[in-house]
Every structure is written in structure tokens, then in C-alpha cells.
Amino acid sequence: MQQVTVRAPASTSNLGPGFDCLGVALSLYNKVTLKSGTAGGGNRMVRDAARKFFGLANCTPFDFSCDIRGNVPIGRGLGSSVTVRLGVLHALNEIARTNLSRDELFTLCAELEGHPDNAAPASFGGFTIARGTDVQHFNVSPRLRFILLIPSFEIATVEARRLLPADILRTNAARNAANVAAIAAAFATRDYKELRGCFVDYLHQPFRKKLVPFLDRVITAAERAGALGAFLSGSGSAICALALDDSKKIAAAMLKASRLFHTQTVITRADNRGVCIFKSAIE
């Protein structure tokens, strides 16, 4: 029997205007443990990832069991599915000794996800810009805090994408492009104060508000409390604010503005390492 545990970080994607291309890995984690030679290969997501891996690695499939534990909530726009898929892919790569590269495993995960915005930061850590499978990566200073409002309800990505229009105004596309460029420059230079005012989006958040009706007032409350800005994390339901100071004050303001019960706030930092082998027992 061979056993491997992989730790994969949560991620917040889009950052407002960077639809399907921007993301940041967060210091919240799931741990995925695979044991070879035992039955019970996990749920459909796990089996699909394994099938994808064995197809590329060109090795004989083997039975394994899968255990997933951690604090990345499901269906909140924090990349929980990526933590599972990356965990399975990296664990199988370790057990099978196939030596697929981090880039190759990222590509497999992005294909399984259908978009790279969470797979990129979870794979490489830090702030990432994904153009398909071409990724640029920048470490993020621990000074920058990420304040998460995590509601009790889930949102399916497929459902959220159905709300998006097929066409957008050229002026709105231009505004989004300008904001994405400003965000990328601020992270690349670590001049985080320049992020203020850059998280406004015209492509997806105005339409997804139907599923998160308190979005605008939470963003406004976060900014008034001192946040650099805030946005819907992925397709939601979580909302993420960024700040250099007053994190607890911002978290309290977001929670109050949401007017929700059974809702939690989490204050965290970026994870600059990305997915990693946490524990390995290979004979």
C-alpha cells in the first residue's frame, strides 16, 4: 500500500473584472489523501480526475481510496473543486512515479474545470494571470489581507454562468480591460494601494447579483470601513475584500451589511506556494 496526502489551497478568482483569468491562492486548505491498492475511488469528480490522469500518464490504472478533509467550503466560489482535482492529480503522480510536471498537472486540472482562473493560483500560488494555459505568477505580500464573507448557501458555477449575456457593450469591455490591467500592475509592483477603485466589473457581477442580492451593499460597507475594494469571489456566494489595515473592522462591516444569519467571516493571507505534497509514504 502506498499513501500520499496533498495539500491544496483555496483561491479567489476573477477579482471583479478579471473574468476567467485572474486569481489569488489563499491560506485556506483542503488535504486529499490517496491510498493505493484499496477500493473506493471517491466521487465522480475524483474518478474523472483519475481517468484524465491515467490517460495522459500512459500508465496502468490502479485502485485507490480517497479521503478529503479541510476548511475550503463547497459552492462558495473559493475553488473547492480545484483543491480536490489537484489533490487527486498530484497524489496519483506521486504514487505512480510518472513525474508529470506542475505545468502538466495544472493543464489537466484546468481542462477538468473548464476554465483556469482557480486552477492557476492553486497550482502555482500567489496572484496569477491565466491566458488559457499560459500563466504569469507573482508572490503576494503578507501585508495584504483577504477578508471573506462566506454565506451559508451554495451557488453552482453552472447556474451562475447561465445568467451571463452572450454579448456585452464595447465600452464595458474597455472598462473591464482597463481595470484588469491596473490590478495586474498593482500586484506585479506590490503597490497595493493602487488597487483602490479597480475591482469594478461590468461583465458578470451585475448579472450574478440575482443570486447574491446583498452584494452591492456588502462591497460598499467594506470600502467605507477601509477596504481597498471588494468583489464576488468566483461565482459566489462568498464575497472577498482586500485591505492593508482594519481587517476586523471591515469584516464586521461586511457581516452587518449582509443582514444574513449563519454567515461567517474569515481573515486570511495569500498562499505563495500552491499545491504541495504534504505527506508521502511510498515504498
In short:
By secondary structure, this protein is an alpha+beta fold. It has helices spanning 44-57, 80-96, 102-113, 119-124, 157-162, 170-189, 205-208, 215-224, 247-258; strands at 3-13, 22-36, 64-70, 127-131, 134-138, 145-150, 229-232, 239-243, 264-268, 276-281.
List keywords for this structure.
Ribosomal Protein S5, domain 2; 2 domains; Alpha-Beta Plaits; 36% helix; 283 residues; alpha+beta
Strand count, sense and barrel status of the largest sheet are: 6 strands, antiparallel
Helix share, percent: 25-40%
Number of domains: 2
CATH C-level class of the largest domain is Alpha Beta
Span between termini: 8 Å
In the predicted model, the low-confidence regions spanning at least 5 consecutive residues are none
CATH architecture of the largest domain: 2-Layer Sandwich
Give the mean pLDDT. 94
The H-and-E topology, N to C, reads as EEHEHHHEEEHHHHEEHEE
Number of separate strands: 10
Shape: globular
Rounded to an integer in angstroms, the radius of gyration calculated over CA atoms is: 19 Å
> Strand fraction band?
15-25%
CATH topology of the largest domain: Ribosomal Protein S5, domain 2
Write the layout of secondary structure elements.
Elements lengths: L2 E11 L8 E15 L7 H14 L6 E7 L9 H17 L5 H12 L5 H6 L2 E5 L2 E5 L6 E6 L6 H6 L7 H20 L15 H4 L6 H10 L4 E4 L6 E5 L3 H12 L5 E5 L7 E6 L2
Helix pairs in contact: 1-2, 1-3, 2-3, 8-9
